[in-house]
Amino acid sequence: MSTARYTASGDQTLTTTKATCLTVGSNASTAQRNEIYECILGVTGTPADNTISWTIVRVTALGTATAQTAAALQDGDRAAQAAAGSNHTVEPTLVTNGEVLKLMPLNARATFRWVAPPGGEWKHAATVGAGFAFQASHGSSTVDFQAIAAWQE
Amino acid sequence: MALPPGRYGYVAIMKPGKPTIERDAYLCAHCQMLCIVRPGSGTTRGYCFRCQAPLCGRAPCNQRCIPFEAKMEAQEGRRRFWKQMELTSAGEASR
């Protein structure tokens, strides 16, 4: 089956509690599965030697965010069906014990990249609102952080 | 615990002025948690002989084999049932 690939990014300002910079999930009208095969996490502000705590977690509702237009990675592909949102003002509804990347400490100057093997992608069920949230927090730093996700659908 | 070639993902951590850290990574067969392989770390994970795949080591994943694909299908099945019954996820009539 031929799949189309897309990418989107989102940013947010660090706070002491988990804040979401990016969600990727099933849109509100047509439920479908999405498979995230790559993600990049980092800081876009001026970083210091802080250790930021990152989490990627499953959600059942995507919260309220600025909609992001997913970029198709190949010419001629249709527009993405997945809903991507950035800079959340209402946090998503998290799945209990739904972390797929749990509290990973990462120096603010560092960039983290994960690439899945074929067939080893993060997948979510085809139910409205299901998806993934990319979150981070720090005790005092207030720099902006960013996540980039690439997925197929 | 070794996976066949091609089953590992890849993690890179890049920091200015430091060598790039590269690690193999895999997803738990039961919950899809990302596990970064650190040789010699002593971290105890798990292995499912039914799925023939490594696990994250969390108790719910180690104790019972429920492949992640089955969990997704169950979730989708519940949603289809609610839709057929014209119920919302809270179990209330939608109209």
In short:
Chain A contains no helices and twelve strands.
Strand order of the largest sheet of chain B: 1-2-3
Helical content of chain A, roughly?
Answer: under 10%
Low-confidence stretches of chain B: none
Strand percentage of chain B? 15-25%
Shape of chain B: elongated
Helices of chain A, by number, come to 0
Description:
Chain A is mainly β. Chain A contains no helices and 12 strands. Chain A has strands at residues 5-13, 19-25, 35-43, 51-61, 64-68, 71-72, 83-90, 93-107, 111-115, 122-123, 131-137, 144-152. In chain A, the strands form 2 sheets. In chain A, strands 1, 3, 6, 9, 10 and 12 form a 6-stranded antiparallel sheet that branches. A 6-stranded antiparallel sheet of chain A has the order 5-7-2-11-4-8, with no helix packed on it. Helix content of chain B is 23%, strand content 23%. In chain B, the strands form 2 sheets. A 3-stranded antiparallel sheet of chain B has the order 1-2-3, with no helix packed on it. In chain B, strand 4 and strand 5 form a beta hairpin. The chains are: A mainly beta (153), B alpha+beta (95). The A-B interface holds A 31, 33, 56, 97, 99-102, 106-107, 109-118, 120, 122-128, 130 and B 6-16, 25-27, 31-34, 58, 60, 68, 71-73, 75-76, 79.
Which helices and strands occur, and which strands form pairs?
The complex is a heterodimer of chains A (153) and B (95).
Chain A: E1 5-13, E2 19-25, E3 35-43, E4 51-61, E5 64-68, E6 71-72, E7 83-90, E8 93-107, E9 111-115, E10 122-123, E11 131-137, E12 144-152
Antiparallel strand pairs in A: 1-6, 1-12, 2-7, 2-11, 3-9, 3-10, 3-12, 4-8, 4-11, 5-7
Chain B: E1 9-14, E2 21-27, E3 34-36, E4 46-48, E5 53-55, H1 59-63, H2 68-84
Antiparallel strand pairs in B: 1-2, 2-3, 4-5
Keywords:
heterodimer, A: 153 residues, mainly beta, 6-stranded antiparallel beta sheet, 0% helix, B: 95 residues, alpha+beta, 3-stranded antiparallel beta sheet
